[in-house]
Specification:
Elements lengths: L10 E2 H4 L13 E4 L2 E9 L2 E5 L5 E5 H8 L39 E2 H5 L12 E3 L4 E8 L2 E5 L5 E5 H8 L15
Parallel strand pairs: 1-2, 6-7
Antiparallel strand pairs: 2-3, 3-4, 4-5, 7-8, 8-9, 9-10
């Protein structure tokens, strides 16, 4: 074992960490680890053993010491990749005032028939729609959302793109059974 250097002034741990052979190169040196001063007496697994002048021995994980007190490495900057071309921004829809008095006396229109139109969701404003379990009038369009109010006064929001996903595909019909009448 190398000669202990307890009589020399303590070196900061950050100075010892710069040695490529650390922790083995630090054995026997007097060290200051954030105010705890002692001699590094040995290396065991991932720890260094530090004995103070009073005889107390403390273990420190040397990987943690490197992370906390080691030299800061400048991040390696890689050349910036060009951003992928973004789709053209859609034109914001003009903000229309909400319908204060919805008309629940018009025909009940299935949502599937509105989704097929190219003007959707704009064409749904003011229409009494059937959403398979919730019926109401589209009283407002906010961004890509439809605000639908029922006769009872409940208002729900539905995302236009979500409605397209759910109701935009034709529902497959079960095959007719032999002998079944139409």
């Amino acid at each position: 074992m190398p000669e202990l250097q307890a009589n020399l002034p303590a070196q900061l741990i950050s100075e010892l960490l710069t040695d490529p052979d650390f922790p083995n190169s630090a054995v026997g040196k007097n060290v200051d680890i954030r105010g705890y001063i002692g001699v590094i007496t040995g290396v065991a697994k991932n720890s260094i053993k530090v004995r103070s002048a009073e005889g107390n021995t403390v273990s420190y994980n040397f990987h943690a010491l490197r992370r906390l007190y080691g030299p800061r490495l400048a991040p390696v900057e890689s050349p910036a990749e060009p951003a992928p071309p973004s789709p053209p921004a859609s034109q914001p829809q003009p903000r229309l005032e909400a319908i204060v008095k919805p008309n629940f006396h018009g025909p009940l229109v299935p949502i599937e028939s509105l989704i097929q139109r190219p003007q959707f969701p704009g064409c749904a404003r003011g229409v009494f729609v059937d959403l398979h379990g919730f019926a109401g009038v589209v009283v407002a369009l906010v961004g890509r959302s439809l605000k639908i109010r029922s006769r009872e006064g409940a208002t729900r929001s539905y995302n236009a793109d979500g409605l397209r996903k759910i109701y935009g595909q034709p529902v497959p019909q079960p095959p007719l059974q032999p002998g079944a009448q139409l």
